[in-house]
Amino acid sequence: MPLLKTVQFAHALLTDHVGQGDRVVDATMGNGHDTLHLARLVGDTGKVYAFDIQPQALQTTAALLLAENLQARCVLIQESHVRMRAYVAEPVSAIIFNLGYLPGADKSLATQADQTLLAVREALSLLGPAGLLLIAVYWGHSAGVQEKRVLDAFVAQLSSSTYRVLKYEFMNRARPSPYLLAIQRFED
């Protein structure tokens, strides 16, 4: 099997982890590709909660879901991912973040390290037993460099008795190349 690009690897992990009836979160909806992938995985009895602050993200994602008749499986929320616990009360099996900015939109509306760290802490508190948190880190812009620094330090200090932490990164690509942080909570 060939080594997968960052987002492909994230989707492969989600495919292996998320099943019918699961509750999951797309913390950074963007153009809706992660939301759509999750909607396919959770089936008719599952639920995807997807967050973004930009109306364009919700419109694009809604159109993708409508094209495959999957909109009933998703709750699209125009809100910061920092507030995900205000909308999601139950434990979830998986959460994905794709950091940075909405491709094709205003690059000044990028995720920011302080808010991202708050959202990641919220995400960890929502994970059920064996829950999976995926964070695609794009650090080719100034806000991304700060996010990389803060997130790498944060995940490195997570308790090894509670979490497994993986960093998936191609070492021989031109810098700054994106990478994936995968954090799995141990089963209770």
UniProtKB/TrEMBL annotation:
| SUPFAM superfamilies hit by this protein | S-adenosyl-L-methionine-dependent methyltransferases (SSF53335)
UniProt-listed GO biological process terms: methylation
Write the record's keywords in alphabetical order, separated by commas. Answer: Methyltransferase, Transferase
One GO MF term on file is: methyltransferase activity
Name of the molecule in the record? rRNA methyltransferase
